[in-house]
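Just wondering, does anyone understand these tokens?
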Amino acid sequence: VAVTSTMLISTILFYVVAREKWKWSRLSAASLAGFFFVVDFAFFSANISKILHGAWFPLVIGGIVFIVMMTWKRGRDILASQVKDRTMTLEEFQKTIALDPPHRVNGQAVFLTGNPDVVPVALLHNLKHNKVLHSEIAFLHFQTERIPRVPNDRKVDVYKMGSGFYKITAHYGYMENPDIRNILSLAIEKGIDFKMEKISFFLGREKLTLGKKPAMSLWRIKLFAFMSRNALDVADFFHIPAGQVIELVVTLQL
């Protein structure tokens, strides 16, 4: 049943891709997809009776995996939307601090960001409570490419924004494990004047709370919270030296 279901779903997806991506006419896409659909549906129908004789097990496992994955995606989308509402673009941020310059302290700071065009919430949180910025600040964004490995000469892009700000984009293949030391070594070679042992790495840690109007059912919220608590720590994933990490807690609602 699992195999024939996969064949049937693949045929449906083929029709969607042919229409949306390849821009085939409806007749052409339906003609070819329809032929395979008839064949696949015949195999699928012949195996339906097996569901009651053990075939239900892989379907249940697949359903559980699907629910877990969709719950994670939905939860991350909700949190990303809240983070977006709390931040601003890098251009807006530079204009803001130009009008009202904060106190700058000697030091080098790296803020990890999921979006290279906006200011990390951790930086705004730090500025709000500590009222200072480091003299040199780098925004580090990791970009996963559609190739297994990215050669070192194309792995890092460095953009000098002025006023002590830098934007670093690290390109990694899907078979590679990101390493912060390697990235910063390549960035230093491209002109960024940082010293690894003097850098403070600022990370945002999410504290999840239940909102007045939850965006998901309660059991999915609990499932997402459980997965979040057990997810690999960001500092460990990027191999950031433990003694140089500063975590700022950001409260978000589900």
Notes: The radius of gyration is 24 Å. The chain has a mean pLDDT of 90.
